[in-house]
Specification:
The chain contains six helices and nine strands; from the N terminus they run βαβαββαβαββββαα. By secondary structure, the chain is α/β, with parallel strands linked by helices. The protein has a single domain, classed as Rossmann fold. The strands form two sheets. Strands 3-2-1-4-5-7-6 form a seven-stranded mixed sheet, with helices on both faces. Strands 8-9 form a two-stranded antiparallel sheet. The protein starts with 6 loop residues before the first strand and ends with a helix. The relative contact order is 0.18.
Length: about 260
C-alpha cells in the first residue's frame, strides 16, 4: 500500500465515523469516497463532521443492500464497516442469520462486486461464538487472506474496556507491502476533535484521551437518546487504528 498516493476508502455502516477517523490517524493520505449509514441521526452527524472538516466530504447511501458496489470495482483500496452487532450481541437474542438486521450476506455480495484490496470490519465480542466463522469462510472463499483479533478501548488509554472484534482481509491476488506503511501516532495532548459527536452547529470534543464528552445529557437535550445510542455503538478511533496496524502487520508477516 503506497502511502505517498491517495488511499481510497468506502465506509459501510459508518455510525459516527469512528473507523474512518481511526484509519486517518495511521493513513494520512486516506480519502473516503462514499459512506453507507441508515440511521438518520448518524447521517446528520456524518454531514456535520464533513462540514467541520473532520471527515472527507462524500455521498452517503442509506442502504448497504442497494449500495452501488459495482461502480467502485477496482477503485477502492479499503472497504470498512461496523456491520450491525444485534444478531451476535450477548445483550440481545443472538438470533444470528435469522435476525432481520443481519447484513453480512449483503456486505459479502458487495465485496465480490467491488473487489477492494483490503476489508476491515468491526463487531462485538459475542461475534466470536456466533457468526465470525461464517464471515471468515466467506472472505476466504472470495479470495481474501484473513486475520482477526480482539482489541479494547482500555488498550489505548480509555477508562473502560469496550472490547471489539476486528477483522482484516487482504486480496490474495494483490501483493501486500511487507514494510510498515504507517505509524501509530500518540493522542493529541489537548484533545482530539476526531472523538466527537457533531449535532448541527454543536461539537462535543473529547477530554484529551479517548473518552467522548456528552454535552447535553444532564440538561435534557432533545437529542440525548440519539446521542447515547450513537456513542453506544461507536468505535473508538484509537482502537480502530491499533487494530488496523496490528492485523496488517500480521498479514504482511504471513506473506
Amino acid at each position: 500500500m503506497d502511502t505517498t498516493k491517495t488511499i481510497t476508502h468506502v465506509g459501510l455502516c459508518a455510525g459516527y465515523g469512528g473507523i474512518e477517523l481511526g484509519l486517518k490517524r495511521v493513513l494520512p493520505t486516506l480519502r473516503t469516497v462514499a459512506y453507507s449509514e441508515i440511521e438518520a441521526y448518524a447521517c446528520a452527524n456524518l454531514v456535520a463532521k464533513m462540514e467541520a472538516g473532520l471527515l472527507d466530504p462524500a455521498p452517503i447511501w442509506t442502504d448497504v443492500k442497494s449500495f452501488p458496489y459495482s461502480f467502485f470495482r477496482g477503485k477502492v483500496d479499503i472497504l470498512s464497516g461496523g456491520y450491525p452487532c444485534q444478531p451476535f450481541s450477548a445483550a440481545g437474542k443472538r438470533a444470528g442469520a435469522a435476525d432481520d438486521r443481519h447484513l453480512w450476506p449483503a456486505i459479502a455480495y458487495g465485496i465480490e462486486r467491488m473487489r477492494p484490496r483490503i476489508c476491515f470490519f468491526e463487531n462485538v465480542e459475542g461475534h466470536i461464538t456466533l457468526g465470525l466463522r461464517e464471515v471468515l469462510v466467506d472472505l476466504e472463499f472470495l479470495g481474501y487472506k484473513t486475520a482477526w483479533g480482539v482489541f479494547s478501548a482500555h488498550e489505548v488509554g480509555a477508562p473502560h474496556q469496550r472490547k471489539r472484534v476486528f477483522i482484516m482481509a487482504y486480496d490474495k491476488s494483490q501483493r501486500i507491502q511487507r514494510e510498515r506503511p504507517f505509524r501509530l501516532e500518540e493522542p493529541h495532548p489537548h484533545g482530539e476533535p476526531e472523538i466527537s459527536v457533531c449535532s448541527g452547529a454543536r461539537t462535543d470534543w473529547s477530554d484529551g484521551t479517548t473518552e467522548p464528552v456528552l454535552v447535553g445529557m444532564a440538561d435534557g437535550g432533545a437529542d440525548w437518546v440519539d446521542r447515547v445510542h450513537l456513542l453506544g455503538n461507536a468505535v473508538v478511533p484509537a482502537t480502530a487504528a491499533l487494530a488496523f496496524t496490528t492485523l496488517y502487520e500480521e498479514l504482511s508477516q504471513d506473506g
